[in-house]
Design goal:
Layout (H helix, E strand, L loop, with lengths): L7 H7 L4 H10 L1 H12 L11 H17 L3 E5 L6 E6 L12 E6 L19 E5 L2 E5 L7 H18 L6 E6 L9 H7 L8 E4 L11 E6 L1 E10 L5 E2 L10 H10 L22 H8 L5 H6 L14 H6 L3 E9 L9 E2 L2 E10 L5 H13 L7 E10 L2 E2 L5 H14 L4 E5 L4 H10 L3 E4 L14 E3 H18 L5
Parallel strand pairs: 3-6, 3-7, 7-17, 8-16
Antiparallel strand pairs: 1-2, 2-6, 4-5, 5-18, 8-15, 8-17, 9-13, 9-14, 10-12, 11-13
The structure holds ligand BES and manganese (II) ion (2 copies).
Length: about 475
């Protein structure tokens, strides 16, 4: 066996299944992979809503059972919040211990499904429907992130079928709180550090460039999420009796929110841009060469023109510039018809996407100061933080990234593009800081997948390519020495 191989590396590698064999195995089992994804999607693991706590736990247990079936030791580990699914396989054969240890991260929880009336089919009853680019599966969590987690699980299934298990030591950490602040994640990682030790982390929770072009994301924006409530009079008031003579918290809040941006749509909070670097010329040129279409990106959401920081392209605005957005604002009478009232308080949920070296804690504090310094006498502001995470950049030149590129090339016939994303995955920063390793962000979503929206979907082509790619990438990692 492999007697002709000259080096130890190729000797070990020569007994591995080829990318073509892995792809054929994935394709053979794909109908069943889809059935299993449907089963996963049918469990409503909405992490933010305590009404779904039982289902969220059941979802973790479902995943544990799948992984045990593939020869992993797996458990739904207890945390201060929702269970963490942790699974481990030492890898098959005597060579496995010399190969890189891979940690996979993803999340089994999903966003709430509301507004329910806008779904064309019930969010937790997955259906496969024909779309303009072939079949797609429609359900909450289809792409974010259950479909992508199953991309990993089903790739491990192909390895199980062809080789009896993965070629490298593999650990999975699939969390149940990503969509609701990940409060258990860091304490869990500190406590389970030894079990989570690995050489590289692979995260599948981002997007492709387009349906035929894979991508590796190397920049994620950070996120500071603050809720602010302005309190004024001690009770709701008749707006005729008191209107014009006392501060109205809703008016005050609206004025303060409007002052957060200047005429060039830059954020006005003092120090906000501290640590925001300019893009290196080479990166800027690479982005310009991508051929990003504003018309397509904006047309898909019924817009004809971009809107944002003056003098920046849409890609810059979403990948490399910080933002401030109101995600919800309410106060006073919001029911049908009219009620003449000055409410005692008003609230806004304000989020900031961060880039480069912006300091989350500093920005949270500066926002508080910004609001407090603008309050009329007699009003007070109350703040609640829903998270503060810095932006992340991962190396574009690691040998693991090169291996991942090789695996993706075997599936797509072309190399992945290195891209940024506007979204945030707090775990990636924590994995860097606590476990000391970079993540490879290899995702298979598309911009029109309706993540966090009604009718979320995953193209079956993308699902199948996700499974093929994870199988092939693992084969490439196995060719490396630890
Ligand atoms: N998978 C997304 C992050 C994402 C979105 C990456 C779009 C690439 C493109 C993740 O589940 C998510 O929604 N993250 C949240 C942050 C979290 C703290 C709630 C986000 O970005 O809003
Ligand atoms: Mn996600
Ligand atoms: Mn999400």
């Amino acid at each position: 066996m492999a007697a002709t191989s000259s080096s130890a590396t190729s000797n070990a590698a020569s007994s591995l299944p080829t990318a073509a064999q892995l792809i054929a195995e994935v394709d053979r089992g794909f109908a069943q992979s889809t059935t299993r994804l449907s089963d996963f999607l049918r469990i409503p693991s909405v992490s933010t809503d305590p009404a779904f706590d039982g289902e969220t736990r059941r979802c973790a247990e479902w995943l544990v059972a799948e992984l045990r079936g593939l020869g992993f030791t797996a458990e739904a580990a207890k945390t201060i919040g929702h269970p963490m699914v942790v699974a481990h396989h030492p890898g098959v054969g005597p060579d496995a211990a010399a190969r890189p240890r891979i940690l996979y991260y993803g999340h089994y929880d999903v966003q709430p499904a509301d507004p329910l009336e806008l779904w064309t089919s019930p969010p937790f009853e997955p259906v496969i429907v024909e779309g303009p680019r072939g079949k797609r599966i429609v359900a909450r969590g289809a792409v974010d992130d259950k479909g992508q987690v199953m991309g990993i699980v089903e790739a491990l299934r192909a390895w199980h079928a062809l080789a009896g298990g993965p070629p490298c030591p593999v650990t999975l950490m699939i969390e149940g709180e990503e969509e609701s602040g990940s409060k258990s994640l860091e304490p869990f990682m500190h406590e389970a550090k030894a079990r989570l030790a690995a050489d590289v982390c692979v995260v599948s929770d981002t997007g492709m460039w387009d349906i035929t072009t894979p991508a590796i994301t190397t920049r994620l924006r950070g996120l500071v999420y603050m809720e602010v409530t302005i309190h004024g009079p001690t009770r709701d008031l008749h707006s005729g009796m008191y209107g014009g003579a006392v501060p109205n918290p809703a008016n005050v809040l609206a004025r303060i929110v409007s002052e957060l941006h200047d005429a060039d749509r830059r954020v006005t909070i003092p120090g906000f841009y501290d640590g925001v670097g300019e893009l290196p010329a080479a990166t800027k040129a690479q982005w310009e060469s991508l051929g990003f279409s504003d018309d397509e990106f904006l047309g898909d959401i019924g817009m004809t023109q971009g809107f944002g920081e003056k003098g920046r392209s849409t890609l810059e605005r979403t990948w490399s510039r910080p933002t401030c957005d109101v995600n919800g604002i309410f106060g006073g009478y919001t029911g049908k018809g009219a009620k003449t009232v000055i409410a005692a308080h008003a609230t806004a949920k304000v989020s900031f996407r961060l880039v480069s070296k912006q300091d989350p804690e500093k920005i949270a504090k500066a926002f508080e100061e910004f609001v407090r310094s603008r309050l009329p006498a007699g009003c007070r502001a109350e703040f609640e933080s829903h998270g503060a995470n810095p932006a992340i950049e991962v190396s574009e030149s690691s040998r693991y990234l090169a291996a991942a590129e090789g695996g993706l090339h075997a599936v797509f016939g072309k190399s992945p593009l290195l891209i940024g994303t506007g979204g945030s995955i707090p775990a990636v920063g924590a994995i860097q800081r606590i476990l000391g390793m970079d993540s490879l962000l290899v995702g298979f979503g598309l911009d029109d997948d309706c993540v966090h929206s009604p009718n979320e979907k995953f193209e079956l082509t993308c699902y199948q390519n996700a499974i093929r790619s994870h199988a092939a990438m693992l084969g490439e990692f196995a060719k490396l020495k630890r």
